[in-house]
Amino acid sequence: MKLLRNFKILQKDLGGVELRTNSGMLLVDREGKVVYANPAMAQLAGVRPEALKRGTPHRSLISPASHARRMAPGMPGAALAQGRDWQGILEDWEVVGGRKVDAIALSMTVLPQGDVLFVGRDVSQQRRAARERDQMQAQLLHQDRLDALGRLTGGIAHEFNNLLGAVLGYAELLTADLDQGSPQHGFAARIEQTALRARDLVGRLVTFARDDMVEDVTFDLGSATGDALPMLRVTVRAGIAIDLQIEDGALPVVGNEGQLVQMLMNLCLNARDAIEEARSCPAGGDGAEAMGPGRIVIRVAPDRHWHAQLLADGVAGWPQAMIGEPEAGRDYLVLSVRDNGAGIPEPEFGRIFDPFFTTKARGKGSGLGLATVFGILRSWHGHVRLRSALGEGAQFELCLPRAPQAARPLAEGAAADADRQ
After folding, report:
1. Rounded Cα gap, residues 128 and 329, in angstroms
2. 198 vs 278: CA distance, rounded Å
C-alpha cells in the first residue's frame, strides 16, 4: 500500500501523467502481482482495464509463447531474474488472446525494494515507417549502382566494339583470300564466328547501358505480346506449356516492339532454365514426374487490377522486391512472366538484375539476360517487381507506363490464342 500511495503522489506531482501519455504504465510488486496499471497498459495488453486490478499476476498480460521468449538471454525476463533493468524493442510480440503487436518499446526499472515499473508503448507504426524508409534507401542505392554500372559498361562496350570491327574486317579478308579447303581458312572462319558472337554480346551490353537509340512508337502491349507467342513457344521447346492471359480493352504503351520481344524472350528463357533446374533436383520427389508439367504464364493487365489476380494465383504472400520507383500519379500496365521452377533465394533479389550476375553453371549463362531486360525497362521509364518462393517458382512483373492515347487493338490471332488458354 505504501508503494501504491507513493506512486499516486508521484503521479499527482507530475500533473496526472497517465492522462497525458500514450505509454502504458504497470507497477508490480516483488511477487509479480499488479499494484497499478493505467488504461494505456490495458489497451497495449489487449485487455479491459478491470482485468488489471490490483493483485492480478502480471504474467496474465502476455501469452505463453511470449513468456517463453521473455526468459531468453537478452530479454526482459532474463534481466529481471538477475535484478537488472532492461530497455529495448519487443518485435512480433504476442499479448493476450493471441493478438500480435509488431513492435513494443519497453522500459523495465527494478526499484530498490524489489518492485518493478514497466513503461511500454506500441511503436509498430514508427517501425514500419523506418523499414519503408530503409527499403527506399536501399532501392535508391541499388539504382545508383546500376546507373554507374551502365555508364561503365557503355564506355567499355563502345571501345570493345571498335576493336571487334578491326578483328572482323581482317577475318573477312583472310577468309576471302584463303582456299576454302585449307586449315587456315577454317581458322579464319572460326575467328570470324567468335568475333560475331562477341559483337552480339557487346550489343546486349549497350542495351543495358541504354546507349542504343531506337525509335519509340505507341503500340498495344497485349497485341504485341500475343504476336510474339508463337516464337516464344518454339524457343522454349516442347514439354513446357506457355499460357497467355490478356485483359480485354486497349493496353497502349510507348516503346519498341522489338525490345518488347527481347524482354519476353529473355524472361521466358530464364523461366525455362528455372523449370529445368527444378526438374533435375525437385524438392520432395524424384525427377520431372514429381514436379509436374512445366508451365510459364504470361499475363498483361492494368496495374490497378493486379492485386486481386495475385490473390487468385496464390503468389501474394511470396517474398517480393521492387527495382526502380513508380512515378506518383502515373497509370501503369503490367506484363508478367511466371514459372513453376526452382525459385530465387531472397538474398539474391537485389543482385539478379546486375550485369554478369548469374546462378547458372559455368558456361550456361552470360548473366546479361535480366540485366538487358532491366536496361530496356529503364529506357521505357518502367520498373519491375519480383516475387519468388523457393520450390514454387518466380514471377517477374514489368510495370510499364500506360500511354495517354490508344494504340492498335489486340490482333484477332493473338486474341483467339489468348482465349484458348
Report:
1. 23
2. 31
